[in-house]
């Protein structure tokens, strides 16, 4: 299906981690000339929301030694961090056992360096960055807000996390400068005085990052962090973890059976020293197989009843960030509460918030100087909030998945729509979570990108044999990379 130039063109909408890592896999795998265009308004590729910003206390919640973009290069990011002098210059990120929890921006630097190296290593692959926003798809070309039309032979959606949206009880506060809708926006917290009272809506990783930032700035005003369950992220413990439990063989066709199997493995292994981290690691590694077993109704029950508990165990908090949260609680200026917001009213002296504590009937009204929204990405506004996805949906080329976790995609990572696609389209990362269940960590995201890259390379060069050994694709004179066979080859 090559374009008029004779060189196949892959257009990637989104240049955060998912878009960048797909470009890296394509550059590794391509055996013929290939054009790759990433449409991303930010100046740097590979950062997205997760690895942008300049806040020094924002840290990755996985040790650098375990942050491998490619499975055949374990420890590569850790080596990069040492070579750049980042470890020596950042003792706060170093733990007694030698684990280094890097600043998020450092990993963005690392991905950018990998892209520069990829361009040099395979000159037959051209990687271009168009600083614009994609707004539509017409006749095989992606339209941008800069009035450009970029021809595509294949399209990959890597738009990443949508921005947060306000919980409904806070909607009337929109526009009030004392309300922080998106704490990941640059400078979002700068208007909060050190003695101000603050309500943080959400108690997950974003809350922990907010507290760490305010603590670094000397904040000592009273902070309440509120969520439905009042659960906070577990602290990342030193590894290595030893996965425990074969959940493909244990009962787990319902949400209840899955929960009971997890508890049974943990209970049986406790006398031998099995940790909950070991069991969670097994669930993570087997995540796709577990999710595939569950019927849609049971997936919905998992999301509704178990997701909050899974999140706090799966997405653990980096020790330096956890230290800041614990200190704030010990010093008495941070309280974690379980409850729901019933209403909020802006007044001259603050924002009055009516809170119903969990397990109680009555409502308590408290006044805060600021309210910070830490509820995370708004998946319900995924399509409507993105002009390009909205355009695809209007053409019948994309739709929300039944669980509202992302886009409706098939097991081949291709969006399921009501109309035939005019070219091969794939969805990466969070967009495909409804199909795969667990797509968040670097390892999982890179693995899915490798699958899509392999499918594209095979489609563009169908007469070229790509030698596969077990689960690995072996490229003579180059690297070995993951080559799962779950992705069907697109028709090009």
Write a structural description.
A hairpin with a 2-residue loop joins strand 11 and strand 12. Helix 1 runs parallel beside helix 4, helix 1 crosses helix 13 and helix 5 packs across helix 10. The relative contact order is 0.15. The radius of gyration is 23 Å and the shape is globular. It has a seven-stranded mixed sheet. It has a five-stranded parallel sheet with strand order 3-2-1-7-15, covered by helices on one side. A three-stranded antiparallel sheet has the order 4-5-6. The protein contains 13 helices and 18 strands. The protein has three domains: 259 residues, FAD/NAD(P)-binding domain; 124 residues, FAD/NAD(P)-binding domain; 60 residues, no CATH class. The C terminus is likely disordered. With 492 residues, the chain is α/β, with parallel strands linked by helices.
Tell me the layout of helices and strands.
Elements: E1 9-13, H1 17-29, E2 34-39, H2 76-83, H3 86-89, H4 104-121, E3 125-130, E4 134-138, E5 141-144, E6 149-151, E7 154-157, E8 179-180, E9 198-201, H5 205-216, E10 223-227, H6 255-269, H7 276-285, H8 287-293, H9 296-314, H10 319-331, E11 334-347, E12 350-357, E13 364-368, E14 370-373, H11 387-394, E15 425-427, H12 433-436, H13 442-460, E16 468-469, E17 472-474, E18 480-482
Parallel strand pairs: 1-2, 1-7, 2-3, 7-15, 8-14, 9-10, 9-14, 10-11
Antiparallel strand pairs: 4-5, 5-6, 11-12, 12-13, 16-17, 17-18
Helix pairs in contact: 1-4, 1-13, 5-10
């Amino acid at each position: 299906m090559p374009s008029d130039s004779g060189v196949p063109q892959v257009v990637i909408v989104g240049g955060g981690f998912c878009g960048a890592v797909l470009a890296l896999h394509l550059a590794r795998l391509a055996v013929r000339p290939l054009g790759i265009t990433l449409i991303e308004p930010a100046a740097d590729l590979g950062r997205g929301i997760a690895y942008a910003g300049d806040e020094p206390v924002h840290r990755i919640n996985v040790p650098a030694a375990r942050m491998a973009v490619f499975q055949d290069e374990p420890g590569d990011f850790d080596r990069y961090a040492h070579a750049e002098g980042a470890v020596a210059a950042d003792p706060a990120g170093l733990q007694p056992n030698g684990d280094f929890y890097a600043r998020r921006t450092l990993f963005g630097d690392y991905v950018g360096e990998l892209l520069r190296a990829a361009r040099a290593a395979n000159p037959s692959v051209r990687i271009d960055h168009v600083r614009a926003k994609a707004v539509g798809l017409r006749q095989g070309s992606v339209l941008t807000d800069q009035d450009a039309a970029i021809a595509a032979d294949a399209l990959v959606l890597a738009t990443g996390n949508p921005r947060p949206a306000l919980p409904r009880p806070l909607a009337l506060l929109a526009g009030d400068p004392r309300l922080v809708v998106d704490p990941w926006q640059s400078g979002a917290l700068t208007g909060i005085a050190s003695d101000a009272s603050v309500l943080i809506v959400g108690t997950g990783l974003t809350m922990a990052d907010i507290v760490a930032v305010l603590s670094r700035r000397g904040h000592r005003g009273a902070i309440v962090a509120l969520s439905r369950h009042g659960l906070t992220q577990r602290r990342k413990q030193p590894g290595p973890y030893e996965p425990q439990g074969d959940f493909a063989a244990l009962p787990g066709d319902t949400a209840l059976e899955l929960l009971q199997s997890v508890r049974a493995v943990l209970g049986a292994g406790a006398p031998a020293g099995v940790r909950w981290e070991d069991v969670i690691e097994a669930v993570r590694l087997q995540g796709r197989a577990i999710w595939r077993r569950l019927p849609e109704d049971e997936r919905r029950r998992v999301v509704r009843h178990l997701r909050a508990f899974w999140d706090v165990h799966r997405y653990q908090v980096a020790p330096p960030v956890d230290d800041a949260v614990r200190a704030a609680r010990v010093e008495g200026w941070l309280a974690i509460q379980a409850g729901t917001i019933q209403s909020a009213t802006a007044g001259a002296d603050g924002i009055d918030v009516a809170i119903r504590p969990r397990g109680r009937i009555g409502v308590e009204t408290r006044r805060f100087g600021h309210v910070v929204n830490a509820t995370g990405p708004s998946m319900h506004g995924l399509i409507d909030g993105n002009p390009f996805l909205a355009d695809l949906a209007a053409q019948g080329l994309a739709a929300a998945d039944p669980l509202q976790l992302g886009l409706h995609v098939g097991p081949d990572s291709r969006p399921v729509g009501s109309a035939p696609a005019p070219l091969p389209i794939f969805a990466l990362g969070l967009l495909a979570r409804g199909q795969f269940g667990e797509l968040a960590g670097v390892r999982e995201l890179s693995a899915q990108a490798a699958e899509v890259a392999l499918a594209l390379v095979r489609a563009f060069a169908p007469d070229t044999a790509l030698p596969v050994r077990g689960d690995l694709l072996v490229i003579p004179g180059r690297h070995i990379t993951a080559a799962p066979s779950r992705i069907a080859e697109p028709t090009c």
